[in-house]
Amino acid sequence: MARPSKIDRLPGEVREAIGRLRERGHTIDEILAHLRTLGVDTISRTGLGEHVQKLDAIGERIRQSRELARALIEKYGEGDEDKLARANIELMHDFVFRLQTAVVDGEPVELSTLDAQRLSATLRNLQTSARADIDLAKARKAWAAEQALKLDQAVEQVAARRGLSREAVTDLKAEFLGIG
C-alpha cells in the first residue's frame, strides 16, 4: 500500500481545517494560502489538489449513501423495522463489495486480518441489533394489544354491572380504545 501523503502526516487540526475550508467552497489556492498562514509550507499545490479531489470523492460517496438511505426510508417506511433491517444489511454488503473493489492511489485496497475481523464483528453487531429492534417492536405491539384487550374486558364488565346499554358500551370503547 502507498505510504501516507504529506497531508496525511500533518496534524489532525490542520487536516480538519483543510476539510472545513473545502466544505465551505474554498478553492485550492485559498486553502493553500491559509496553510501558509499556519506555517505549513511543505505542501504543494498539486499535492493539495489531489487531497482535495479525494475529499470531494468521499463527500460524493457520503451524499450518495444519504440519498440511498432516504430512498429506502421512502420505499420501506420508517415503521417497518424488518424491512429496514434487511435494507441496512444490504447496504453493508454493498459497502463491503465496494471496499473490496476500491482502488486508492492506483493500488487496490487491502484489508488486514484485524480489519476483516472488525468488519465481520460490525456486520454481526448490525444483524444482532436489527433482530433486537424487531423483537422489541413485536413485544411493544403484543403489550399494547394485551392492554387493549384488558381495557375492553374491563369496559364490558363495568357496563354489565352498571346496566349500560350496548350503545353506551360502544361509545366508551370508541372513546378509550378507538374501536366501535
Secondary structure class reads mainly alpha
**Number of DSSP strand runs:** 2
Tell me what portion of residues adopts beta-strand conformation.
under 5%
Count of helical segments?
6
Let me know the average pLDDT: 80
Low-confidence stretches are none
* Overall shape: elongated
CA-CA gap between termini: 69 Å
* Rg computed from alpha carbons, rounded to a whole number of angstroms: 29 Å
- The proportion of residues forming helix, as a percent range, comes to over 70%
Strand order of the largest sheet: 1-2
What's the helix-strand series?
HHHHEEHH
Largest sheet report? 2 strands, antiparallel
Write the layout of secondary structure elements.
Blueprint: H1 12-23, H2 28-37, H3 45-76, H4 81-101, E1 103-104, E2 107-108, H5 113-162, H6 166-176
Helix pairs in contact: 2-3, 4-5, 5-6
Features:
two-stranded antiparallel sheet, mainly alpha
Question: Can you tell me about this structure?
Answer:
The chain is mainly alpha-helical. Helix content is 76%, strand content 2%. It contains 6 helices and 2 strands, in the order ααααββαα. It has helices spanning 12-23, 28-37, 45-76, 81-101, 113-162, 166-176, and strands at residues 103-104, 107-108. A two-stranded antiparallel ribbon has the order 1-2. The model has no long low-confidence stretch (mean pLDDT 80).
